[in-house]
Amino acid sequence: MDISKFLVKIFGDKKSRDLKAYRPLVEAVLQIYPEIQALSNDELRDRTQKIRQRIQDSAAELREQIQTLKNKIPGTDIQDRAPIFSQIDKLEKEVLEILEKALDKERAEVFAIVKSTAERFTKNETIEVTANDFDRNLAASHDFVDIEGDKAIYHNHWIAGGNDLKWEMIHFDVQLFGGTVLHQGKIAEMFTGEGKTLTATLPVFLNALTGNGVHVVTVNDYLAKRDSEWMGPIYMFHGLSVDCIDKHQPNSEARRKAYLADITFGTNNEFGFDYLRDNMAQDPKDLVQRAHNYAIVDEVDSVLIDDARTPLIISGPVPKGDDQQYEQYQPLVERLVGVQRQLATQYLADAKKQITEGTEGNDKQKTSEGFLALFRSHKALPKNKPLIKFLSEPGIKAGMLSTEEIYMENNNRRMPEATEPLYFVVDEKMNSVDLTDKGNEWLASQVNDPDLFVLPDITTVLSQIDASDKTEEEKIEEKDRIFNEYATKSERVHTIQQLLKAYTMFNLNDEYVIQDGEIKIVDEQTGRIMEGRRWSDGLHQAVEAKEHVKVQAATQTYATITLQNYFRMYHKLSGMTGTAVTEAGEFWDIYKLDVVEVPTNREVIRKDMNDRVYRTQREKYKAVIEEVELMRTSGRPVLVGTTSVEISEMLSKMLQMRKIPHQVLNAKLHQKEADIVALAGQSIMGTVYVATDGRAFNEKSTAINYQTRLEAETAKKEKREPREASELIHTDERMLGTVTIATNMAGRGTDIKLSPEVKAAGGLAIIGTERHESRRVDRQLRGRSGRQGDPGSSIFYVSIEDKLMRLFASERIAKVMDSLGFKEGEMIEHSMITRSIENAQKKVEENHFGVRKNLLEYDDVMNKQRTVIYEKRRHALIGERLGMDISNMIWDRVCNILENNNYEGCKMRFLEIMAMEVPFTAEQLESMKLDDVAELAYQKVLERFQQKTEIMMNNAQKVVAHIYEGPQGAMYENLMVPVLAGNRQYNIPSNLKEAYESQSRSVVTAFHKAIILHIIDDAWKENLRLLDELKHSVHNASYEQKDPLLIFKLESAKIFDDMINQINDRTVSVIMRAMIPELQIQDNAPQQEMPRRDQPRLQESRGELTDAGQQQAAARDTRERQPMQPIRRDNLPGRNDPCPCGSGKKFKQCHGKNL
Q1: Which run of H or E residues covers position 584?
Q2: Which of 88, 147, 213, 555 has the fewest beta carbons under 10 Å from its own?
């Protein structure tokens, strides 16, 4: 007996346990609902405000404690502030916990209020309430509210998504169930058509009452705007503000206001990009987001699974960004692929001949040679269509796989024998392309340079240099030359590999389309164009070169985060979808999100049929067209699901040949998505041609051909002459279903509603043309039919030539078809086959999960670094903890100097970093404990820092007071204060009144803030570049039997430590040297221009403190995202050359220190 089935029988499955746990919570809402229903409109609104006040008052005491602690900070010494900030952080977490308890306590009553509000809008054309200021402001900007005297009149229809919609929805009990799941920070698995958008109003409304903000996240801007307008009036009726960030420009005051709303709608990308922009801001006024409190993610599987690994990148141009080699080597690679294609075609022809002759003559040797030739053709070009077709023939793939097993024995020891004649080897499963020795030789012959594409053995060469008799300086120069040569050749080889991958593994109208002269990636899950997204590591440039469109320049990353890590920052996160249960394990492992299956309001009566499996794609698509015509002429609308643009266009042409009207929705027609999907469930009156057996056809010639065959069979049976077919068919006027071709997940968020005629005919017919690699994509397609108890059906047509079948399941099914003697055009349909295909999908899902989890490990390293850096940056930007951070930097530098130097070294480092003599003697260093010496030195340095701060304030205040108190003081709002630090000058803008009232402390704070932001941004950009290079290079560790992930973690930690040391060194060095000169006071000038120095390269101003490219990138409108791509390392400068960062140091003493 299956133990798992036995345990389920005793304890029940998860679904039944969840249902039992949530039933009392739903009943609590229903119990209080009659009381809420009996309230007048004004009483209902008043009840909401009282609950809102109770929730916010629950944490009032702790908030007062937090404010008291914040008030103590200015009067506390810098070194004593850390415990205060720790206490504040602890109390803020406690506030969130108390608010959660208050929300749980009020949940049932609030849910009842929301349901009652929906019922009132459904049953009444207008709702009259006593007007308040919120109503009056609302009436000025929205059409669903009118003010008449002291009354506000709310209408039950308004514009949403460009359509005038009437509110006709009241929450079902299952939606109360789903709303509770969402409020608890879980994923609500709800079938398509069960009203997820309405369900979300319950937890959104409840959590918005805290005043901390709620984010409703959608997959595209149409849904964000539509849902904010559609659901908004329900919230606004109770005084809750609603906005949508996608309606406003980035960095604008309107977007900042949108985040201050109680409820904020937006797309996943825009929320993420705003987070990155906030961490590039130069002024607190530029910040738009509040703390990440609570988010509900619509279509959570698309956002947190499909798009989770895709990084959001804000990037900008770099010098020589156009200096790339893809266009240069594209003709060479195109010729190489052509040569390989000829070779693959020849091997395929030889294979067919040898296998046929060997089988007929029972010659095992010739058969074996034939399968080796077939295997070589497969390794050469696995996506070659004639090859795919031949592999679908009986026994062919089994023979090739047996050959592959021979050469894969002993860890692929014999594989070079099989691949030696090829120019390159393609591994479809691993998504990789590798040049062979023959390929390298061919490339060398084409360019007349045998070493052009060969990477030198750099370890051996460096060892030979070290062992030579050359001087140290000559050795360094020789190593520089070798490093530069290696970097150049590495870039060249990388270019060739990416071009090969573009030619062999990425197909037009499948993985990408061309629009407006640009390569646009097509989302394999949804079929939508992924605007602004680019493949990384130069692959996108390779595809651009292949298709002869403009190759975009390389860019430098300023800020980046994956959606996976962005959404993990929220205090509470929940999501809703109809297809999450198959990924439940991943949701729990990565996000700690439990998936709860919410029961349907009405029983699902859709008929899900077993898959129909054909031998070839040609047979499959022919059967699909016949099924479409059969469904359409029976009055049922048809939704045909495809997996690519290419297939959807091919099916469209086949339907056109049959003269069957239809709509096509794919990546090229994404803008029409909502309109096309909304019409997909309709039927129209039309004429059909009906044969004598009742079969109807759209086209007369097709009906005649069918009737001819039917009459011939009938006449043969009845032993008579066949009659004229055209005289036997007749026309009929009937309802004909609409036909829509769409990618599997098209139209998410838009319901397909059926007319009574369509329901009577059998409902919407779903026809899938291929099984997707992911079961939830297929479930999404099935779920388009059968909403809210509607009739319907779904079926998938599959062929052995399909990608999923080729990789996992085709051989077993082919053997079954062979043993049963299936002829061309015949199909196999059985539940066992369907289960076999779903098992293959599970294997793919497990593999994808493993890949995502592995990539998450890499991204977590960067995320931890990002958290530290952005926290430092936020402290500097806000300024509240600035003094404490500076004191920590000073302490860190003092400890670093003492731990890594003797007394002479300490003397030099204190002069270099602290700009002062060493504050202790050699005897003290020798006799005292290191911790005591560090404390002594720290106090002396801190004392020096505070003295310099006082001097800077006094010097600035003289000028500030003179201007502010003078007759022209009222004319000026801001002034520019020059600050000198060594041989550099920084011009710091300051508010005149604030500077005067703070005794110029604000001027010094602004300087410290600007310096720290500048240094952090500069170091972080370089760190991102180094991490990007490390991620690509670390995989070579596997050749040395080392774990690439472990190497990445160790090396990235070293890179991060170096960055922190560099930030602390540069920051302390600048602030300890800073001074504001005693300026000559001029009555007619609000600022003093410092004379220019002779070294313009070292001259810095306020403008240079903020990277113009970075600010331009941060201001870019990501609603129409621009191409983004991390830059790869260019040729390195020599060790003794000036470092390109502009520090003035030699490269070997700056960014080349560890190379």
Answers
A1: helix 584-586
A2: 147
Write out the DSSP string of 462-477: HHHHHHSS--HHHHHH
Burial of 941 (0-12, 13-18, 19+ CB in 10 A): buried
Cβ atoms of 938 and 890 closer than 8 Å: yes
Tokens matching residue 282? 């130069």
What percent of the chain lies above the pLDDT cut of 90?
A: 33
Where would I find the beta strands (DSSP E) of 170-325? 187-189, 214-218, 242-244, 263-267, 294-298, 311-317
Both ends of the chain: CA-CA distance in Å? 63
Pairing of strands 974-981, 1074-1075: antiparallel
Token pair belonging to 495: 């270019």
Alpha carbon distances (Å) from 201 to 43, 627, 686, 694, 1034:
20, 41, 42, 50, 47
DSSP 1037: G
Report the C-alpha gap between 403 and 420 in whole angstroms. 15
DSSP state of 209: T
- Distance from C-alpha of 316 to C-alpha of 1112, rounded to nearest angstrom: 8
pTM above the 0.90 mark? Answer: no
Q: What is the pLDDT of residues 763-805, one digit of tens each?
A: 999 999 988 877 878 888 888 888 878 899 999 999 888 877 7
CA-wise closest residue to 89 among 871, 705, 700: 871
Report the alpha-carbon distance of residue 736 to residue 756 in Å, rounded: 14
pLDDT of 205 reads 97
Lowest mean pLDDT among 246-260, 357-371, 828-842, 1095-1109: 1095-1109
CA 781 to CA 770: how far, in whole Å? 11
What's 508's DSSP letter? B
User: Given this model, what pLDDT does residue 321 score?
Assistant: 54
Instruction: Quickly list DSSP for 696-764.
Output: EESSHHHHHHHHHHHHHHHHHHHTSPPPPHHHH-EEEEEEEE-EEEEETTTTTT------HHHHHHT-E
Candidates 945, 946, 919; CA nearest to 933 is: 919
Q: What is the pLDDT of residues 806-834, one digit of tens each?
A: 766 566 676 677 677 777 778 888 888 78
Q: Which residue from 866, 1121, 852, 1125 is spatially nearest to 269, judged by alpha carbons?
A: 1121
Helices (H), 297-363: 300-301, 326-360
pLDDT tens track for 86-112: 899 899 999 999 999 999 999 999 999
Asked if 559 and 314 count as a contact pair (C-beta separation under 8 A), the reply is yes
- Per-residue pLDDT tens over the stretch 962-993: 888 887 777 888 888 888 887 788 888 888 88
**Quick one: residue 713, left, alpha or beta (phi over 0 = left, psi -120 to 50 = alpha)?**
alpha
- 875: Cα within 13 Å, side-chain hemisphere: 18
H or E element in which residue 254 lies? helix 253-260
Cβ(361)–Cβ(332) below 8 Å = no
Residues 6+ apart with CB under 8 A from 629: 658, 660, 697, 698
- Beta-bridge partners for 350: none
Q: Residue 1010: CA atoms inside 13 Å, Cβ hemisphere, count?
A: 24
Contact 731, 689 (CB under 8 A): yes
Q: What is the pLDDT of residues 202-258, one digit of tens each?
A: 999 999 999 999 999 998 888 899 999 999 999 999 999 999 999 999 889 999 999
Whole-number Å distance between alpha carbons of 487 and 498? 16
Tokens representing residue 109 in the block: 């009553």
Closest CA to 277 of 868, 1018, 873, 872: 873
Spatial separation of the C-alpha atoms in residues 492 and 451, rounded to whole Å: 12
In contact, 191 and 579? CB cutoff 8 Å: no
